[in-house]
Amino acid sequence: MDRIKIQNLEVFGHHGVFSEETKLGQKFLINATLYTDTRAAGYSDELEYSTDYGKICHFMTKYMQTHTFKLIEAVAEQMAQALLLEFPLLQKLDLEIQKPWAPIGLPLENVSVEISRGWHKVYLSVGSNLGERQQFLQAAVNLLHECREIRKVKVSNLIETAPYGYTDQPPFLNGAVELETLFTPQELLHLLNKIEAELGRERLIHWGPRTVDLDIIFYDDEIIAEADLIIPHVDMQNRLFVLEPLNMLCPGKVHPVLHRTVAQLRQELLEKAEHR
């Protein structure tokens, strides 16, 4: 990914824990590395294809001047998100907020907070086998669309499949969703659980019937093993109802643990089924 660097942008703001800081204000310095594709701008030499660093500098200056935070951690976090939402060509940024001569009662030249934030490519598996199945799935997708921290939502065709694991239940409609998000994996999991609850999901039987089921399959190429979240999804390679819709969206996506593409995993599972 190409990078545009902004160094030592001086901004006067009113951020700090002490009342003197918020009343009198002080100078802050901003350093930013913008990750974006500069190729179209480089070939065309047209500003419309560029991530305009001039506009970004003015945006950061105005943001610092019109907001007040106690912590520079909050300044960095909130401004990074605002930038990523405001400038669509910006895929990621490294942002440093420097606070010269921070009032800690000791000789100190500078304190700074530096963070990296960006859009993450995510793939979900979605399913429903209760009530108006297609309507439940569409409602879940609509709720994803409504979230400002999510963009570029794409949905596969839906397929009907037999239940998996617990088989004494109605057939499922299954699909896959591709999206980009600013959420961390845990934040995204929390959102998905909230959407499931809002659409009436009840967790009564393991692998049991549900109005809507939303599972994170891939989050970039991250490998996560936590008590309530495993990414890539631990059993996806054994679930044709996951691989078939996923193959419609990203056949070439490589599983970061198994090191095989979605298309290869699907083909292997089909071949296993043929030999049973």
From TrEMBL:
Keyword Membrane: no
UniProt record, GO biological process: folic acid biosynthetic process; tetrahydrofolate biosynthetic process
Gene3D superfamilies: 3.30.1130.10, 7,8-Dihydro-6-hydroxymethylpterin-pyrophosphokinase HPPK
Enzyme Commission designation: 4.1.2.25, 2.7.6.3
Any Pfam family hit: HPPK
GO molecular function: 2-amino-4-hydroxy-6-hydroxymethyldihydropteridine diphosphokinase activity; ATP binding; dihydroneopterin aldolase activity; kinase activity
Taxonomic superkingdom: Bacteria
Domain annotation 7,8-dihydro-6-hydroxymethylpterin-pyrophosphokinase: ranges: 206-217
Database matches in InterPro entries: Dihydroneopterin_aldolase, FolB_dom, GTP-CH-I_C/QueF, Hppk, Hppk_sf
SMART domains: FolB
Pathway involvement of the protein, from the record: Cofactor biosynthesis; tetrahydrofolate biosynthesis; 2-amino-4-hydroxy-6-hydroxymethyl-7,8-dihydropteridine diphosphate from 7,8-dihydroneopterin triphosphate: step 4/4; Cofactor biosynthesis; tetrahydrofolate biosynthesis; 2-amino-4-hydroxy-6-hydroxymethyl-7,8-dihydropteridine diphosphate from 7,8-dihydroneopterin triphosphate: step 3/4
Keywords: ATP-binding, Folate biosynthesis, Kinase, Lyase, Nucleotide-binding, Transferase
Annotated function: Catalyzes the conversion of 7,8-dihydroneopterin to 6-hydroxymethyl-7,8-dihydropterin.
Family: Belongs to the DHNA family. In the N-terminal section; belongs to the DHNA family.
Name of protein: Bifunctional folate synthesis protein
UniProt source species: Eubacterium ramulus
